[in-house]
Amino acid sequence: MRFDTVIIGGGLAGLTAGISLQEAGRKTAIVSSGQNAMHFFSGNFESPSADRDRIAALFAAAGVRTNAIDGQMLMPMGTFRDASLTLEDVTVFPDRHVADKALIVNFTGFHDFFSTFIADALEQDGTACRIRFVRLPEMEHLRLSPSEMRSVNIARAMDEHWEKVVADIRILHKDEDLILLPQVFGLKDASVLDKIRTALPARVAFIGTMPPSVPGIRTQMLLKRRFEVLGGTYLMGDEVTSAALHDGIVSSVTTRNLDTVRLFADHFILATGGYFSKGIVTTPTQVHEPLFGLDLDFPENRSAWYRADFFADQPFMNFGVKTDEALHALKDGEPVRNLFAIGSILGNTRKEDFGTAAGLAIRTAFAVVDNIKGENV
Amino acid sequence: MKIQEFTASAHNFEECMKCTVCTAYCPVVPVNPRYPGPKQAGPDGERLRLKDPYFFNQALKYCLNCKRCEVACPSGVNVADIIQAARIRYDHTPPKLRDRMLANTDFMGRLARPFAPIVNGMTGLGVSKAVLDATLAIDRHRTFPKYSGRSFEGWLKRRTKEQAKFERQVAYFHGCYVNYNYPQLGKDFVKVMNALGVGVQLLDKEKCCGVALIANGMAKQAAKHADKNIKAIQAAVDKGLNVLTTSSTCTFTIRDEYPHLLQKENDGIRDSLLLATRYIYQLLEASTAQLKFKENYHVRIAYHTPCHLEKLGWGIFSYELLKMIPGVEFTLLDSNCCGISGTYGFKKENYEASQAIGKPLFDQIRSLNPDFVACDCETCKWQIEMSTGFTVKHPVSILAEAIED
Amino acid sequence: MKRNEYDVIIVGGGITGAGTARDCAMRGLRVLLIERHDIATGATGRNHGLLHSGARYAVTDQESANECIRENMILRRIASHCVDETDGFFITLPEDDLNYQAKFVESCLAAGISAEVIDPKEALRMEPALNPDLIGAVKVPDGSVDPFRLCASNMVDAKIHGAQVLLYTEVTGFIKDGDTIKGVRTYNHQTHKAVEYYANITVNAAGIWGQHIADLAGVKIGMFPAKGALLIFAHRVNGIVINRCRKPANADILVPGDTVCIIGTTSTKIPFEECDEVRVTPDEVNLLVEEGAKLAPALASTRILRAYAGVRPLVSADNDPSGRNISRGIVCLDHEERDGLKGFVTITGGKLMTYRLMAEMVTDLVCRKLSVDKACETAETPLPGAGGKNFREVAEKIWENPTTVQKAAVARLGTTANRVQTSDSLDQSLICECEEVSVGEINSAIERLDVSGLTDLRRRTRLGMGTCQGELCGCRAAGMLAKAHGCADKARDDLKDFLTERWKGMYPIGWGDALREAEYTQWVYKHVLGV
Q1: Quick check: B21 and A148 CB within 8 A?
Q2: Interface confidence (ipTM) of the complex
């Protein structure tokens, strides 16, 4: 099968590149070995404001609305993070005094929304908090399974029953100027978020839960659909098993499912992520990139990969595939001329240029797409 | 010895990162809370069962074995394999008569075929449906697939000479459905292959692939089928033939479930057993054969990817072939399970769950209102036709009607 | 009776202290147990969890072997909920001397340990994880025992018999009257209060830290700390304990315990000052995997969950400062007799297997000193939770159709699982998905088992001991503790400590799936939850 570009990895980086290339009329395939880190997305792009408009436009075309506001994002454990571009689910506050009075509503028995921590933190910044629980008869069947009071399961029920929850909250609400809810709404259709905001008598903010991230899943779904509507080929649950790389050029890749039907392309983009998604693989002695054997720097002494404090900056999080300035991946010190590396596989090595996590994914994708488009002009 | 260069575990259960993504894509979880979900039933449960088999949970039977958890898993864990393997290993309750009947598709087919008009009439009757419902717990909403009076095998046998004339040859694993219920698909397949300049042979004694046996707790019997099929397919492969199929589930079962669940080594045949759509796509892509399409063929097709085709990753061949037909307006339906899952949806206790699982798909079909639905799976066809009223056609049948006679 | 006055104060909340508290309390003494951290934080919780048959010592130390088999049989009776009767193999590999097997069997039989020679093929059939190259196998009554559960059960029973237990309370000094110890000075790390407690006798049961306690009392005990490192594999590779049939050496025991299996150990002398901060080195990890893979080749490619190390409380038998004469046996010191210090005794040495016997010996001594004439009953009296043929029987006695959550609770708590609330679906909801720990079980631990933080909760429930090492359950349980204790700030810090404690065992084996899990946990906690 022939494509203009084959992207290995279907997460935020791969989809951003894929959508951009399809928009430019390039025939693109994405090979994705299962779902991806979008399912753990906080909703904050952690991106410097430079590409904000471009990112927002790409997402808007896919039906994903974003907030481009500089301010503070309230995290699930009650801490705050800087934000400049977020998914529409995320409320960005100008400062930490988010309200004079807040009502925090949780579902009875939902342990993945941390109302106690949020209340405690907000109280310290002068917001009086009241925590209340709702319990819908329509959700009781979920409890038959001990592991079903989880974000996505509740979200599925909420797609149908959100109006009932809103009615309950209206009864619970007294004089609070802010209502905080877990991000379990609008899994199928984000317009529910606005409907809830309109239906409630105070400002509403949706706060994150333990993964899976409901906004993240919805975003992934919409981006994938956008890519396919544009004519892209998304091979879900398949995996590139080997690549033909000769004289600094990749000619094709082989996948587990299509085996003898190889994927040929002019350009290849490696967006396979870090350790979790096996973009980078480790053994007791090695850190390596398994598909192409690309260059990676890591200390030989394993003890130097880690710090004892889990919350310290962990050295292993910085190991990433080496590239030239144009993000061509390096092998044996030489750039592979039609292979680019984007997203988390770069580790945090390019943090200063591109931001972390989501920012890195999107901005390296843009850089590579521009490069590919430029080459052919 | 390589020390910790990689890790290995049964169906990769130890690769699980506990990210819970599988649960988000399981079609059963939202409709049947008695099911513990793929993560609990699969990798989590496996550690407990290794601790003590007493942790085996009968609720694992609610797993559809649709493999959507495996397609979604970012870690390459074969979640559904873990669950099915646990059922085979730990569940020793003998299958009910109803399950034995549903599972023995080829036996039932052989039995029913000579009396097809009577059987079809009987199973279609409200009274008999009520009896089946009450006595065997086969849901009364279900209509049994019609049995054909003449088997496909007989039809093709009568054309052996004619088929032998083609220089290029393939063998055909037709499966129970084509043989007993819907020989027309087999005939369509032969028509398309012949148009491509390829003759079709039967295998020497194929058996039911056994997917329904595995699902209904009859793995031992399924293993016997596997032995016979591997032997029959191997004989064809040894003659230098590809063995083609028109059922995504039979293909998937023989290629992957045989080694993974029945411990049947199939290395010698795995690469030669292909879905017809893949084979046709490859012929056309390599320009070694052409198809001439009718000029006045205009249809709006919505394509549904069956779960096992999704797992095989071969849906792309069906999409590309259908898109190749001039005059086809092609829409790919969102990837959702239709809810039937072979014999699962026929069981009274699963009927409601089955329909609830399929609802998003049915809704999407209705809103698209295509001329017909396309799909590579026979049981999805029953379910979609019964639940939406839309006709479902196999891509090979669509090719057959779109090419010039 | 004055406030803060007891018959006996026991210093140390490990298995020896807990067992001694139980024994003393059962003999009617007024008991106070003081522990600087949580229960089972020293060597008690840092070993194989092997229910020794004694076979390992049969050739070299008949006395220890005999002690082991007797206690082994007692524990099966009194602590059935802590014991898994797996049996054990002693296998001979091609590089080992098969002649040793005959001597081994003979020594076992002499010590009263049943030892049956099994054909290697049959052994392999019984335990498919065995190295298929084995040339000999002997079956012995080894098993596995959960040290946390055993310690907690002793603690609970001690309390049932009237003992008081103070956790997170450190002994900072002794109250002396001439040549007599009258009591202890303590500092509570949670309330930040210094309190004095009085007793006629103080028992030093502080394990390796007993040297420091003795120092505070003004007497010398020569401890020889020996670090032993172990690895936990992510699931049960073997169902039967596997030992090497040769003179005891490094990494020659593989024990299936609960949902995991454990290979160990190494043995390295370390300075006493390092006892509080033992680390597992990369060399130790390599050695454990390489040697372990000889017992069960699957270990070379099985996911490792964590590495940890304990310090054996070895003591010189006759106060020999050179350490040449080290005993692994039980050391019970009457400091009045030995050093002229009244009201102070030390119980040390020994091993997990012989904790009950150690408790009996020191309690006998205490009773003699207090002129209490009551016989020891700990060998006959089951611990709370013990009973039933197996956990299946217990579960089905409590519930008609036990759910997975209920089965898991019984497998941990035995008959006392009936106190765990499971009737409401809210209580059956899972907090720790890997180990099936429910809301009800956690609430029950918080209410009954002196839990002040997540790590304590882990020792009592196995929360966070599974595949994800606390990644899913840590914050859920922190939320519950924040609510139960009404202190979110403390719970948030506790969560950080908990994850760092989990990480401590993960980074020594930080490659492959363990590193994948670590990266995921980093995302979840740093970027998604914002800890």
Answers
A1: no
A2: 0.96
